[in-house]
C-alpha cells in the first residue's frame, strides 16, 4: 500500500512539470529570447548607486587605515 501512495504522489509532480513545460511551449522563441536578454541585462547593469557604495566603502577603509597609523605611530615610544 505504501508503494501505491508514493507512486501517486510522484504522478502529481510529473503532471505539474508537464503543465509548466506546456506553458513554456506556448511562448514564441522571440519572447523567450527577449525575456532572457532582459534578465541578463538587469543582472549585468551597474547603476550609480552601486558604484557610489563601493567607492564610499573603499574611502572608509582608507581613512580607517590612516587613523590606525596616525594613532599608533604618532606617539613617541620613548616618552
What would you say this structure looks like, in words?
The protein has 2 domains: 1-45; 47-79. The protein contains 3 helices and no strands. The protein has helices at 2-26, 29-44, 48-74. The termini are far apart.
Attribute tags:
single chain; 79 residues; mainly alpha; 86% helix
Kindly summarize this structure in a few lines.
The chain has helices at 2-26, 29-44, 48-74. By secondary structure, the chain is an all-alpha fold. The mean pLDDT is 78.
Low-confidence stretches: none
Strand content: under 5%
Q: If you compute it from the alpha carbons, what radius of gyration comes out, rounded to the nearest whole angstrom?
A: 29 Å
Shape assignment = elongated
Give the termini separation.
Answer: 87 Å
Largest sheet: none
SSE class: mainly alpha
Number of self-contained structural domains: 2
Give the SSE order as H and E letters.
HHH
Quantity of strands, as a count: 0
User: Helix count, per DSSP?
Assistant: 3
Mean pLDDT across the residues is 78
Q: Helix share of residues?
A: over 70%
